[in-house]
Amino acid sequence: MAWSMFWTLVWKELRTELRGGRLVASTLALGVLLFLVVGIALNGASNLTADWSAGLFWMVVFFATSIGMTRADVKEQELGGSLGSLLAPIDRSLIFYAKWFSTFIIVLVSEVGMLIAFLVILNAPVPQNPLHFALVVMGGTLGLTGIGSFLAQLAGSSSLRDILVPLLLFPTTIPLFIALIRLTVISMVPTVSGAHIWVEVLVGYLVLFAVMPFLLYETMMEV
Amino acid sequence: MLILEGVAKEYNLKPILEDIHLSLEPGQVYALTAPNGSGKTTLLQMMAGLVRPTRGRVLWDGGPIRTTHRRHFGVLLQQPMLYGDLSASENLAFYARLYGLPQHRQLVQSWLEQVGLGDTAAQRVRSFSKGMKQRLALARCFIHKPDVLLLDEPFDGLDERGRAILTRLFEQRINDGASVFLVTHREDEVRIAARRYTLRFGRVTAC
Amino acid sequence: MGKSSWFGVIAVAVLGFLCQYFALIWSPPEKTMGNLVRIMYFHVGSAWIAFLAFFVTALFAVIYLIRRNLLFDRIAVASAEIGVVFTSFTLITGSLWAKPIWNTWWTWDPRLTTTLILWFLYVGYLLLRGTIEGLERRARISGIFGIVAFADVPVIHFAVEWWRSIHPQVIDETGFNMPGTMIFTLMFAFAVFFVIYLLLLVLRTRQETQKQRMFLIRQGLQELRAKAFDDSVRGES
């Protein structure tokens, strides 16, 4: 039962995005632009070490996503749709998880484009272990969109919202950021060791930020 | 049965609602008249479980309102509570599924026809006129056959046709034993109510 | 300030002088660092207090969300503000200490890095809080962030620690053996900082309470004015 409600909510979010939500387009455009700017800032460097390029990749993804995150909820407040969902006989944390999942899908789609820009513009090394790399990207995006959606809702009533979301998101996601960079480096250069520690950090972080909204979301959505 | 037990709400530590006792019995119509800015919307939202009272309790069948109890409520606020990017039928289907209603396809179709939106079912709600949005909001509010109706100025913004539809839906629900709580300022609506209340300075008094 | 606060301030002043004496004169210099070690008493003291302050913020945020009494919210924010101040002290003294010893103002030492992240987290908390309308909503939202931020602290700590230990160690951070006099001084400094923290917490919370009272008075005044205006309009017509 809960699953069908969850998919209903996800369907609504994705349908809204397809009908001109433009989160994919704006995040992707911003991401590619940032790669261009970084390339210029590095004076068109042609070969970066795996450490650097992994760091730059995640920095751009985090930045583009955190900016895009703040725009998502404006539309559903326009006609009061979000209140309608809150009235429904479903656990309210389900609304959060659906928002998380749909944002995850949307950001994942735009990341494909960003990844191409990353490989082409920055001339980054192609990961030697593509499967690991794909898993890292998915895990990272899951963590980033989870805490991002949560903070975007949290800062929703702040008058400084557009600046605050990145400002709160970056310090809270530092562990995730470090783990992702290390794991990305490992997927690019498999000889680097220590993957298990970073997988632990990544999983621990995901668990922490998957459980906390369940406890806090109802409180957050009170008026 | 919905009961409010000494409910109060503060904003910025200033009381908006104070010590409100109400109980809504099945098959009864209650009308509340209130000036603008008196906290009537807050009261309705609190009864619907959207706003947490600062003090007091809102009870359903003698206990606190649980998630599953929300299916007994039909709420109509000033906002239509719809998604502008979804079409009329998608909006209704969305709510029908959230309320776990069976065979929602036929249900949605019949409701769209009942509120006179059968021809525009595939259009996005954003392009609707105010009257059309309100009629769709009626369908959204009544689709799950609620036992308690919480309506904020329901006849406002409705066209002639919408009013006729609402009156009909209304009578159906009352005959089925639902209780209706109506916030209004119109004399003709107050007249249909068995019990009348006013909300002034945060307090509800019978009249 | 009341009588008890003055007593607190005087007590802090006396204890503070004692602490200076222990830290600067009585405790011995360290073998390799010499007199430079003396900054440790302030550095470590403020770091511990900062951490304690953020814990208090999270604790009172939880209590607020359960009890919904705005007093707990005021304690939470007072503690967060003091925490940010002590975090700043930690960063500044850390930087001053690092310069002569490691010949750099900033190193990617795990604890230093964690402290800087903490600083940003709680500056974010204060900014979030300062830009939300409505006392109850502000308390609720910032409380949730206070809990989330504190839950994140251990994760940040371990992630940064592992990140640095896997990298080649540029700086050898050997723990030095402290003689008893140094340990005593450190503990004494911590105790003094703790008393300062408590005093600031009481004063800041009280100030916040007064601010709220002022806000309510102003609100009441506005209402009276509006009512007087209404009456005068009614009188004219």
UniProtKB/TrEMBL annotation, chain B:
The lineage of its organism: Bacteria, Bacillati, Bacillota, Bacilli, Bacillales. It comes from Alicyclobacillus ferrooxydans. Gene3D superfamilies: P-loop containing nucleotide triphosphate hydrolases. CDD domains: ABC_DR_subfamily_A. InterPro entries: AAA+_ATPase, ABC_transporter-like_ATP-bd, ABC_transporter-like_CS, ABC_Transporter_VariousFunc, ABC_transptr_haem_export_CcmA, P-loop_NTPase. It comes from the Bacteria. PANTHER family: ABC TRANSPORTER ATP-BINDING PROTEIN ALBC-RELATED. This is ABC transporter domain-containing protein. Keywords: ATP-binding, Cytochrome c-type biogenesis, Nucleotide-binding, Transport. Residues 2-206 form the ABC transporter domain. GO terms for molecular function: ATP binding; ATP hydrolysis activity; transmembrane transporter activity. One of its GO terms (biological process) is cytochrome complex assembly.
